[in-house]
Amino acid sequence: MTDSVKYVLDETRIPKSWYNLQADLPKPLPPVLHPGTHKPVGPDDLAPLFPMDLILQEVTQEREIPIPEPVRDVYRQWRPSPLYRARRLEKALGTPARIYYKYEGVSPSGSHKPNTAVPQAFYNKQAGVKKLTTETGAGQWGSSLAFAGAVFGLAVDVYMVRVSYDQKPYRRALMETYGARCVPSPSNETQSGRAILAQRNDHPGSLGIAISEAVEMAAQREDTKYALGSVLNHVLLHQTVVGQEAMAQMEMANDYPDVIVGCTGGGSNFAGIVFPFLGAQLRGGKKVRIVAVEPAACPSLTRGKYAFDFGDTGHLTPLVKMHTLGSTFTPPGFHAGGLRYHGMAPMVSHIKELGLIEAVAYHQTKCFDAGVMFARSEGILPAPEANHAVKGAIEEALKCKEEGVSRAILFNLCGHGHFDMQAYMDYFAGRLTDQEYDEAELAMALAGLPSVKEAA
Amino acid sequence: MTDSVKYVLDETRIPKSWYNLQADLPKPLPPVLHPGTHKPVGPDDLAPLFPMDLILQEVTQEREIPIPEPVRDVYRQWRPSPLYRARRLEKALGTPARIYYKYEGVSPSGSHKPNTAVPQAFYNKQAGVKKLTTETGAGQWGSSLAFAGAVFGLAVDVYMVRVSYDQKPYRRALMETYGARCVPSPSNETQSGRAILAQRNDHPGSLGIAISEAVEMAAQREDTKYALGSVLNHVLLHQTVVGQEAMAQMEMANDYPDVIVGCTGGGSNFAGIVFPFLGAQLRGGKKVRIVAVEPAACPSLTRGKYAFDFGDTGHLTPLVKMHTLGSTFTPPGFHAGGLRYHGMAPMVSHIKELGLIEAVAYHQTKCFDAGVMFARSEGILPAPEANHAVKGAIEEALKCKEEGVSRAILFNLCGHGHFDMQAYMDYFAGRLTDQEYDEAELAMALAGLPSVKEAA
Q1: pLDDT at position B2
Q2: In Å, how far is A45's CA from the nearest CA of chain B?
């Protein structure tokens, strides 16, 4: 037996509810603070940006949040996603490990992002919203929201980091095919954008700036709201369909993970695969080692400070407690654009502080080595972001080989790399380098964190 | 109910055999002729190019050809592929038609091509072959054979039409990621290539030239064989997994197609979806209307001559009877590179002559209109080749609307367009035009067909 085995659930097994880790946390999440008063924000503070259903999902302590049927109907196009046993990769590594991967690249836009784009579009449509604004870096999130907007009949304006807009015209073309409007950020459409352009007319943009622009546009209009593709609790909540399906599929395989590996940028694909397993553990189930893999050039979990910070560069968002490199930190331009964010999802940061997960950082060339090995063995070409998870899983499998033990390793292959071929071309041409962030810039960004006195 | 419904078979339902239409044909296929003697070729004539298992599959009259287990094991990664009911597209069209599509873009390389690349690599490996040579136009076939070579440990040399090599660097990067060697054709590696380059040093290449190069290289070496991605009987045979699964899935949907639509270049994806249904009809089952959709700029079925012709430009192949525009005909450079071939699969041509199928031709801008409408409704971005099938299906659905009748329309969405985004960008920028072939060139190419006296 030399090949992959696929574990497929039929569509009746699409989860009927999202799993909320908040219900099982040994210690509650810190509150989200108003940037002016430093008091906890209430639902009304967020109402200009999000529909009430999503605001309530942000704070609920209920364990199970029912998935509306129209959302499950759209999920049915690609869910349940397959879980694979990577037998050919195991053989190539000569490892006794049992490697499993959940594959989210089967969605229309090619990643896990539609898992939350679809319900976000649905709840906004229900609330009478006409247009959504958002930001995108690599374009995975923007194209997913564009798809969801097309399904529910919402206009979508995507502020795309200018350097990506110029370098990734194909992602932009995909968004436009779905009918979205794509604007290079910083733009002249917003105050935040104009302020940046006044300083530097050819500014390459950043995710933090694009968030400011999208938030500003949404806050100004009654019929327009904002959608975020990661970080927030409700986004992570929606992604738990991934881990819930994986639990059922591991059961089909008659196995259970000893280790779960996920890559982390904002934290949503990681949370998606991890939270259902972690919840089971917290309720007395089997303990699982959990490893977050992040880029060494933007290492929020391994080098950031756990502190209250803004989610954007323009300081329009509330303050959230997270591992952050500082909202003014600009990561080097490595290829995994989806992992180039200064902060981390508060829930992921919280469980890291509670000692429930580990984190490790790798440079991109090692991640591409792993990704190419994976593609040659398994046939699927991973996105640069997903290559970090592949690298983490291979490291775990090699540890098994060294120790001569067989462990079950599960990782989330969060998307394909079909729109990232320039990165693979650079890799084969030897043009891919490992970029280091500027230590002085990091120190300055951390020194600039807002000073928040926390209640005991 | 506004969305797609997916019909999924579990992996035990991957067909156990390929279906051979030759067993049910009312009139046998014309023989393949030796280009020198014009006598039917025997297995030994083909042995320098193909392993004996594939040569026998080329001529067998058996109805069911068992699929080797190692091939089914690899198929399991993405097969059975999903069949969808296109409810959102139906709604957008306002048609009473029931539109179903089989989606082959879920394979590792993104099209139906691995269905035959995998068994071809398997049988060659079994026969002790070390290297496969092949040609590729758009790159769908080259990347599929590269994938199959990686799985079975065979070296793969791909002669890629030079204009595509230059314009589609990402497809080339995918082949290289799988470990294949990609050579722009015409090249200096072969006599056929050097002969072309001597005439014109910057020749853009063509599929016919690339075939000559790949065939020449394979014929020279004992341990090297040639693999073709369409046209031949054994290639069409391997694709029948598509139609067999679709039959089971239509049964799950409690429906049966009134019309089947497929796009045709060499004919393999068309044959894959059509032959099992046509075979059932020929054995006394329900009659199905079958529509082949081809590009108006390379219209072999609608404008070609049914005659014996070479499969390549260098005239290294045997003569096959098919609808052909002449082996010297160079189609204009439209985007559906996989449909830019002067000939047609002999089996597809044969059933066209028998009146069992219809054919229609569309220009590319209309096909892209259809593809963008499909993407906005269904979320999947079709390859330019597949847009022809989408266009054909939409035309059938609009006929239903006009007539006020509900018919079941099934089409094969043979691949995604993730590596064809330049075509979509050109479309949105208004740079996509409908190219006409040169009537004088066609007349000359047809006049140059080999003169073959057929036995009565």
Answers
A1: 45
A2: 34
Q: Residue B224 in contact with residue B133, Cβ under 8 Å?
A: yes
B155-161 β-sheet, strand order:
B181-185, B155-161, B131-136, B224-226
* Residue to test with chain B: of A74, A151, A168, A176, most B Cβ within 10 A: A151
Chain segment A386-410, per-residue pLDDT in tens: 999 999 999 999 999 999 999 999 9
Kindly report the nearest CA distance between residue A365 and chain B, in angstroms.
14
| Of residues B367, B369, B310, B376, the one with CA closest to residue B338 | B367
Judged by a CB distance cut-off of 8 A, whether residue A84 touches chain B is: yes
Q: Cβ distance A85 to A390 under 8 Å?
A: no
What percent of the residues of chain A are helix, what percent strand, and what percent coil, each to the nearest 5? 45, 20, 40
Q: Are B124 and B51 in contact (CB under 8 A)?
A: yes
- How close B425 comes to chain A (CA, Å)? 6
pLDDT the model gives residue A456? 47
| Alpha-carbon gap, residue A110 to A125, rounded angstroms | 23
Burial of A440 (0-12, 13-18, 19+ CB in 10 A): exposed
What are the structural domains of chain A? 4-8+68-110+240-440 (3.40.50.1100)
Q: Could you say which residues from 88 to 147 on chain A have a Cβ atom under 8 Å away from some Cβ of chain B?
A: 88, 106, 108-110, 147
Cα gap B269→B112, rounded to integer Å: 7
Instruction: Provide the whole-model pTM.
Output: 0.95
Pick from A11, A69, A77, A425 the residue to mutate for testing the B interface (most B CBs within 10 Å).
A77
Contacts of B249 in chain A (CB under 8 A): none
Please indicate if any CB of chain A lies within 8 Å of the CB of B166.
Answer: no
| Closest Cβ opposite residue A5 in set B76, B169, B177 | B76
Distance CA B313, CA B215 (A): 11
The Cα–Cα gap between A192 and A326 comes to 18
Extract the residue ranges of chain B whose pLDDT is less than 70: 1-4, 454-456
Reported as a single tens digit per residue, the pLDDT across A223-271 is 999 999 999 999 999 999 999 999 999 999 999 999 999 999 999 999 9
- Compute φ and ψ for A336, nearest 5 degrees: -80, 70
Interface touch A3/B110, C-beta < 8 Å: no
Cβ proximity of B225 and B49 under 8 Å: yes
* The two structure tokens encoding residue B223: 């341990």
